Amino acid sequence: MDPDYFRKKLEGERDRLEKQLASVSHEHPGTPKDWEPQKPELNAQTSDENEMADVFEEFQTNASIEAALESQLNEVKAALKRIADGTFGICGIDGKPID
Length: 99
Fold this sequence. Notes:
The chain is 60% helix and 6% strand. By secondary structure, it is mainly alpha-helical.
């Protein structure tokens, strides 16, 4: 197994996920490495129930996408850490190499 090959692939995936995350969320200022969904930038009138429903729906969509992307990003970062630690490709249960 070539760890450099997988490191490069995972770094590319990390960059892609971070770019996608930035389109629907932003990093939480108080807790780095944590993302939160962006509020939609719609010029909705608060007196119009339909427009406000659109705002809430957009926010809910962003929150759902953000949660899925953040989960994937955390898995990629964990794999990159295992490469750096030299444990990538090793079973966490029995310590044997993974085919």
